[in-house]
């Protein structure tokens, strides 16, 4: 994180991106923190993701095979499935929802590794974007089949506008989304290609979904959650998968649930590892975000995660 960025501005942006305040309130308060409209305008691109920085591993890297996978899933997980808002549509923007009975995924693997464990990659509340695709390519280079799912694909796919993506994800029923992911995990487990070795990794919203997926799926062998909302005590009691949990020291919103979650995991006898990265911000792994990326914490967490998967998912 840049030392020039006030923590109050980072916390404010986090509140905005997680629906606690609307954009107008965010801009008004950011202007006060920054000391004026010009300073606030200068801060905006630093607080937001810059996907021009996303390609750590090039999409055309000749070591990889990149395809699109499709998983047949019938569950409708919109809280209000009868309608969704669309700009420019008649009748005040309300149109009937089109639900496609499948979830698509960006699938990356090494060219010479047709048989390997599968890892489901679950995006933040911005949907499937260039950064998450890059994360999938990094995982593929570690020897896994990475499936970066687009959980908005049943509703037309992740839009380019991040605000719209966050709004759409905010309309998803978390329990039903976890059930969708459980169906995907089972379908991967049943393929000879993966020999029942299925893991999942998620970030922010996706980290929370890893926790819920672990409770919803007996097919999941190992899950890694980055600064994700914790599962309930009842859900924790159902978890059979091994877990690795990464948390940022400066993430009060998410960290408030850690103690209860740990207690529930211990009571259930879950095999888990928990790491706290002191001084790091929520989303510290996202290297497209100048304000919150912490290379030291990100590199340490990544090394731990890949070692964990290689141990838990070995054939």
Measured by DSSP, the beta-strand proportion falls in 15-25%
* Number of spatially distinct domains: 2
Widest β-sheet, arrangement of strands: 1-4-6-5-7-8-9-10
Look at the structure and give the mean pLDDT: 89
What is the CA–CA distance across the termini? 39 Å
The oligomerization state is: single chain
Q: What sequence of helices (H) and strands (E) makes up the elements?
A: HHHEEEEEHEHHEHEHEHHEH
Q: Tell me, what is the CATH class of the largest domain?
A: Alpha Beta
Task: Provide structural commentary.
This protein has 315 residues and is α/β, with parallel strands linked by helices. The chain has two domains: 48 residues, no CATH class; 254 residues, Alpha/Beta hydrolase fold, catalytic domain (Rossmann fold, 3-Layer(aba) Sandwich), CATH 3.40.50. The protein has eleven helices and ten strands. An eight-stranded mixed β-sheet has the order 1-4-6-5-7-8-9-10, sandwiched between helices. The protein has a two-stranded antiparallel sheet with strand order 2-3. Helix 8 links the parallel strand 8 and strand 9. It is globular, with a radius of gyration of 19 Å. The N and C termini lie far apart (39 Å). The model has no long low-confidence stretch (mean pLDDT 89).
């Amino acid at each position: 994180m840049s030392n020039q960025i006030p923590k109050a501005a980072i916390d404010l942006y986090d509140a905005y991106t997680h629906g606690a305040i609307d954009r107008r309130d965010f801009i008004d308060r950011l202007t006060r923190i920054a000391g004026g409209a010009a300073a606030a305008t200068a801060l905006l691109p630093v607080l937001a993701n810059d996907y021009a920085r996303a390609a750590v591993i090039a999409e055309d890297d000749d070591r990889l095979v990149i395809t699109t996978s499709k998983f047949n899933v019938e569950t409708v997980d919109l809280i209000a499935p009868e309608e969704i808002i669309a700009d420019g549509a008649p009748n005040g923007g309300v149109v009937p929802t089109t639900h496609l009975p499948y979830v698509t995924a960006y699938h990356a693997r090494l060219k010479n590794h047709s048989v390997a464990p599968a890892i489901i990659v679950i995006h933040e509340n911005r949907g499937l974007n260039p950064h998450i695709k890059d994360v999938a390519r990094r995982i593929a280079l570690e020897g896994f089949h990475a499936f970066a799912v687009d959980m908005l694909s049943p509703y037309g796919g992740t839009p380019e506008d991040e605000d719209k993506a966050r709004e759409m994800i905010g309309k998803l029923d978390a329990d039903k989304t976890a059930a969708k992911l459980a169906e995907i995990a089972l379908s991967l487990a049943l393929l000879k290609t993966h020999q029942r070795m299925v893991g999942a990794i998620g970030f922010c919203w996706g980290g929370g979904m890893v926790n819920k997926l672990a409770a919803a799926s007996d097919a999941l062998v190992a899950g890694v959650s980055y600064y994700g909302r914790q599962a309930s005590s009842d859900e924790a009691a159902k978890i059979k998968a091994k877990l690795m949990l990464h948390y940022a020291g400066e993430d009060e919103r998410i960290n408030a649930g850690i103690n209860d979650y740990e207690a529930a995991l211990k009571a259930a006898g879950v095999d888990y590892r928990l790491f706290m990265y002191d001084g790091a911000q929520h989303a510290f792994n996202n290297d497209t975000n100048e304000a919150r990326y912490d290379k030291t914490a990100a590199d340490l967490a990544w090394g731990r995660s890949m070692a964990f998967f290689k141990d838990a998912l070995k054939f």
